[in-house]
């Protein structure tokens, strides 16, 4: 019960508490947002504490964030042993740095009289909880090494299950107690943020990097609006110039690309006569091929029946390829009942042509992505990329006199009767329209 | 031309008697709070001396103000954009408490609770930070009136470029010379503190140029403390926020002079509006040290020039401000008469507080320690002045002696003119010749005399109409703002957990 609260309840309490608490504090006690530096009161040991602590914890948190928020990318990276070892080493070094810094800060806070004058109970709690968290983290890294790798399959999905509102503690419930304690303490720290000096993490002044140096505030809205025009002439012009420059650069690139193509067309290298002749021959060949295909299609469309083979030519194990009315490949087998079995050869996955020979289980293989189709049912094997069955085709059997003696419909039902003695003289056709012989 | 109005100041150092009344008035009004005990938004320093905080002028150590790079661009001395982020954790240029002093009080209860005995009971000194008994080793004006000179005054940064003879002249025991330097925030036109603030909490008020810190935005990163070359931003160790002189804007908004101005016994302080060209602020500061004073003067705009007035109206500067600028005593002292000079212009922040350099100790040397008024020696006196001209030039003109000598020559000429007029013991022709040589007419001399010696309150303080109803954001619901005090804070400013 306690365990599931710490792993499932506490995270939500912590995240919501952190967000709501910070907003509440910002709205009601904005003045209290401060880094609360005590450098003014004591700076000699502060530099030895604050610098290592902040730099160390920044590296450690950046590593945690990268692994937990982008587990797939991270897993790909840590697959390289060099990377994994480097990450572990950097993490441990940064933790050590943070630990040293934090210890200095704690000692300083406990021993320096001036600093004590500005020390609250919460300050000490923050220092203690961070110290415990770092010790836990280092212990985990030493006792259960390569956390950078194993966390991608456990902690990262756990975190994502929380973030996507499908909390799943089963991912972490069996992890060692050290790791679970580290997790619970982490959520505790998140919850502590709005109620301690830690709120200063929301104040990291990144905007300083691109803001204008001088800040002028006009108290009077009327005066502000009338004078701001003069004050913003320069920035507005600068913005315009920057936009114009960007557009011109883009335009210039586009023009260069176009000019290059045009130049190549008009002034570029020409083909030699031999190359030109080869190119023309290839074009002609392609046109002829198209013509042949078209003629075949027209011919097929004109004919009522298309002959596949004689019945005696069909084999039970090895299919005969043919092209149906829609110009799709298909296979003709001799069925167990002695009648033809016609099945589409176009794989239902991505349209490859399946092989013609049956394997031991009476299946044909699509070589592209390894789907086996049972020719009797047309069904692919379980787990194959193809999901749909290959359809069977209707056929008719005709004798020498072009008399239809038997047929099979698209529904799989047979019509007519085949005299075994005359079977050798019958031929298999596919018909343009389905035919049923009584 | 982008005309901005600035509430600017002149301190007339000849009139300062070093009484610290200004400091006390300020302290009682603004910094009598826990965390602010050590702050002296207004302080008075004895020069030569190390000042407050100790050796604040040593920018190698405290790294304040702007530097001019090879291309003539200005850059903060204390930080760049990126290392500013690193300096959030520890700022090597920030002065600590020991550079100021540990504020103390006395355990007065001991006087009443002491058991009866042979000795007088004493109230021992206790720290206002820790509450523990402490030894007092420094104070806000520890070297007042050259106290402990061998220890303190000789460490004055401005003495560095003086010759051995000049130094000796200054500390010759029989003829010790000193002057007072009252300092408040300069409300600079190109403030390095504003440019350094990572949170963007510091700002210059558009209407009157007062530099303020938004206490709700300040996150206590302390970059401004290092960046201000005058060390006029103080870190409140209790609230974790920086604070500075606010030029008593709640008083200005009700038409009163700031507390330090109002209380000044010697009436050395003048307050008025200056117009300046915001577009020229940066370029005016990007000239060589020698040219700085002239360059800054030329960035100030004549409030009677029709072009300036048109541009000012275009910028929404009110008629009341224009009128105040035309009557401004600061404009007269700084530009018209060229008497007042900026403090350490080489910090390139374009300070808006100007000082009339002191004439008295300069003239005092010539006649065996008696003040010399012989008109024949008007110009000879500067050579062997008791306070070396170079020292004044280091303070007020980035080392340019000519600018200081010009100002002193004018002061001396006016003084001689009035003496000739009142006492008749000087040859009026040579006095008039001296006036002409100084570039002044008799009208100028009368006006300088009046503004320096006689001017009543409304002439010394020409306060522009910064009206309360204009200063408060009009979006503020009166019902909501009714509990607020002068600073507009309706929530107790308490330290965070």
Q: What proportion strand of chain A?
A: 5-15%
Main β-sheet description of chain B: 5 strands, mixed
Spatial ordering of strands, largest sheet of chain A: 2-12-9-10-11
* Strand neighbour order, sheet with most strands of chain B: 13-12-1-15-14
In whole angstroms, the N-to-C terminal distance of chain B is 48 Å
In CATH, what is the homologous superfamily of the largest domain in chain A? Transmembrane di-heme cytochromes, Chain C
Computed over alpha carbons, the radius of gyration of chain B is 24 Å
List keywords for this structure.
heterodimer, A: 438 residues, alpha+beta, Fumarate Reductase Cytochrome B subunit, Rieske Iron-sulfur Protein, 2 domains, five-stranded antiparallel β-sheet, four-stranded antiparallel β-sheet, 12 helices, 51% helix, 11% strand, elongated, B: 497 residues, five-stranded mixed β-sheet, two-stranded antiparallel sheet, 22 helices
Q: Could you please describe the fold and organization of this structure?
A:
The complex is a heterodimer of chains A (438) and B (497). Chain A is an alpha+beta fold and 438 residues long. Chain A has 2 domains: 203 residues, Fumarate Reductase Cytochrome B subunit (Up-down Bundle), CATH 1.20.950.20; 130 residues, 3-layer Sandwich (Rieske Iron-sulfur Protein). In chain A, the strands form 3 sheets. Chain A has a 5-stranded antiparallel sheet, with no helix packed on it. A 4-stranded antiparallel sheet of chain A has the order 3-4-5-8, with no helix packed on it. Chain A has a two-stranded antiparallel sheet with strand order 6-7. In chain A, helix 6 runs antiparallel to helix 9. Chain A starts with a helix and ends in a 7-residue tail after the last strand. Chain B is an alpha+beta fold. Chain B has 22 helices and 15 strands. Chain B has a 5-stranded mixed sheet, sandwiched between helices. The longest helix of chain B has 22 residues. Chain B is globular. The N and C termini of chain B lie far apart (48 Å). Chains A and B meet through helix 2, helix 5, strand 1 and helix 10 of A and strand 8 of B. Strand 1 of chain A pairs parallel with strand 8 of chain B.
